[in-house]
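Wed. Picked up where I left off yesterday with Glycosyltransferase. The coffee machine is broken again, so keeping this brief.
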Amino acid sequence: MRFSVIIPVFNRPDEVDELLKSLIEQTYNDFEVIVVEDGSSLPCRDVVDKYSDKLNVRYFYKKNGGPGLARNFGAEKANGEYLIFLDSDCIVPNSYFELVNDELTSNYVDFFGGPDATHHSFTSIQKAIGYSMTSFFTTGGIRGGKLKLERFTPRSFNMGVSFDAFRAVNGFSNMRFGEDVDLSLRLFEKGYKSRLFPAAFVYHKRRTDFRKFFKQVFNSGMARINLAINHKGALKLVHLLPSGFVVAMSAILVASFFFPILFVLPILYSLMLFVDSLVKGNGFVVGLLGVVAAWVQLYGYGLGFIYALWLWMVHGTKPQGAFVKNFYR
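Structure written out below (tokens, as returned):
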């Protein structure tokens, strides 16, 4: 078996249905699919069974332990030379595996990641969140953009790693958030090489509203401190930008009550985001929502980072992440 596709899922049967439907339409089919139900109260077994005669697919249920441990569980059942991890809220273009196989055949690499995109069927909010998570003006291009402020680190919504490399670092850690970056850093530390496969993108739904999105990025900000604690030199300037944005913009907004001219700065930044979103092909509504998504993202991540830094530096407590029990609500 060339590839083993591992999909952790928590209470998302409808999204699993869409993902599996996209997998039966692949132009390259030397892969198996392993769906790991991570303690869901809304299981997707019936959905998986519906595709059993169209896909080489297996279903497993385990007690809830987080996505990283669910992926490890799936890897233990895998038969492929290469493991590919996809989030359950993704839709895969039909040439995805053909492109990945071509990349690995022509220029092999130990692990890789691909970018994400928005599908025409996504809601306006999902498209706006997709824009904010991939724009250079919000993330610095670290998620697979052409412009980037640091080396490319694969994310687990679209990530592949050779079985041997995965086993050499003992898979994902028990980190609840940031577990994919942690895996990439441990692979780097072992001398393994990664590469971005630009054409091997997936359509990624992400969160369905701004409240859930805020929880996601807040936890990501907290996780960055844990990653800095666990990996020397892992904290880069680009990771400080959202917290710097929070401090600077908050100071500007307060000062603008006394010096109204300062209010033009957040307006100009918002206008820049709106125009950039329009240039990238988003409509007027998505452009406006993209501005909201960008502010939610930067403030959520920045506040999570600052809160975790406070716990670590002032209280001597290693941050574990917020919204753990109700992360998907």
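Quick read: The mean pLDDT is 91.
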